[in-house]
Amino acid sequence: MNMKKSKLKCCLLALSVTAAIVPAAVYADNQTDNLRQQVDDLQNQVDRLENTAAERNTDSSFHMAGYGSVEYADPDSGNAAFNKVLVAPIIHYNYQDWLMFETEFELSNTADGDTELALEYASINLFLNDYVALGAGKFLSPIGQFRQNLHPSWINKAVSAPAGFGHGGAAPLTETGLQLRGGFPLGEMRANYAVYVGNGPTLAAGVEDDEGEYELAIEEVETEGRTSDPDGKKSFGGRLGLLPFSGLEIGISAAKGKATVTDAFAGGHDGPELDIESTGEFDYDVIGADFRYGWNNLELRGEYLKTEIGEGSAGVEFHSDDLPDGYAGPAEFDDVEVGEWKAWYLQAAYKIPSTSFEVVVRTSELQTPHSGENYSQRTLGLNYLFAPHVIAKLNYEMKDYDSSGADDEDTVRVQLAYGF
Questions:
Q1: Which residues make beta-bridge pairs with 293?
Q2: For every one of its 420 residues, what pLDDT tens digit does the chain have, with 9 covering 90 and above?
């Protein structure tokens, strides 16, 4: 009897164990099937992506960047206005790892509500090796630092450019031609360089009346990277930068070439334009130096540039049938007043620790052959960085002219800039 009970217990135990094992095994089989199905689905997705990628040209890549800004100005000698809206899209197109095409367009509105479109630069760059890139096209002038690296509104610490580093100043803006640039180790230091050859600048001259004595003087060195070379002589130059230790860069720049008068105006640059023929040419020389030092939250920058138009042959003749009414000057000049354009700036920027505020102080000066155009500019600024590429600026700008005939001007400027 006892033996029968024992056998019965063993049977019941076996049945209970089997009942527990069978569902678990079935559940495990179902889970395995689900996992296999998921793996198969993922593999199918990978296969589709690989097929799609194979159909595309994977050697090429496209990237769009740029910046935009809005400005407000309140001068003490005029009306306050939202005086500038600008967008500058930048396009990069790469082929494999040895070619890049880059271009920047600048669109801005005018005081009349029109839109201006300008090609800032467009060049094809070939990466010859780790130390040399060859560029061809229109490019930002490598002379100095500000124009080639700091002029975008979201990078510039102040709202305006330093005196003499914008249009009509001492600093070259752009060039059309060829350039080589890159960097290399130099002992314990690092170095970077850029050398170029291009069409060079042209000159704008103005006829000035000095108590009945008329003279033709160079008003402006035009460095807009034009696609013509009126004097037939190429300009060349470049910059060498040295980084002796972390945080410090020192650069020297130089350029040399020829330039000829292509534009002339009666009564100075603001007068009516004269139709001319010019066969003369003048020496064109530029020298410069710059530095940048960063330490913790402090950044110091400075730059000096001198552009000289030297002696040459004038050969400027005005078309007599196109002279403006009231013009009593000669129709031909054999002598042209030349001179030097010099500009410099010093700038300090300090980001207040544990905040998004930045304090900026800048002083700059422009000296030209024309006393009425010489001025110094001081800027006090407070910036707020919403992000490293989104910045709001509040500037108080003081412009003091050397000539007693020109009125000094203080301006409050506000700008919101975004780099994308």
A1: 248, 300
A2: 554 445 545 444 444 544 444 454 444 566 677 777 778 778 888 777 776 655 565 789 999 999 999 999 999 988 999 999 999 999 999 999 999 999 999 999 999 999 999 999 999 999 999 999 999 999 999 999 999 999 999 999 999 999 999 988 999 999 999 999 999 999 999 999 999 999 999 999 888 877 777 888 899 999 999 999 999 999 999 999 999 999 999 999 999 999 999 988 877 667 777 778 877 899 999 999 999 999 999 999 999 999 999 987 767 777 656 666 667 677 777 788 899 999 999 999 999 999 999 999 999 999 999 888 999 999 999 999 999 999 999 999 999 999 877 789 999 999 999 999
The CA distance from 217 to 206, in Å, is 6
Sheet containing 316-318: order of strands: 276-278, 316-318, 332-333
Are 39 and 172 in a shared domain?
no
Provide the CATH number for the domain around residue 99.
2.40.160.10
DSSP state of 1: -
pTM: 0.82
Q: Are residues 44 and 91 in the same domain?
A: no
Closest CA to 194 of 119, 282, 290: 290
What is the spatial distance between Cα 26 and Cα 30, in angstroms, rounded to a whole number?
A: 6
Q: Are residues 152 and 3 in the same domain?
A: no
Give the number of domains in the chain: 2
Counting other chains too, the contacts that 240-246 makes at CB distance below 8 Å and 24 or more residues apart are 240/191, 240/192, 240/193, 241/191, 241/192, 241/193, 242/186, 242/189, 242/190, 242/191, 243/189, 243/190, 243/191, 243/192, 244/189, 245/189
Q: Is 335 helix (H, G, I), strand (E, B) or coil?
A: coil
Of 56, 77, 100, which residue constitutes the final position of a domain?
56
Distance CA(365)–CA(374), nearest Å, equals: 8
Phi-psi region of 233 (alpha: psi -120 to 50; beta: other; left: phi over 0): beta
Residue range(s) defining the domain that contains residue 39: 1-56
Does 138 share its domain with 28? Answer: no
User: 333 and 199 share a domain?
Assistant: yes
156 with 50, same domain: the answer is: no
Pair 183, 248 in one domain: yes
Residue 24 shares a structural domain with residue 98: no
Strand partners, 88: 67
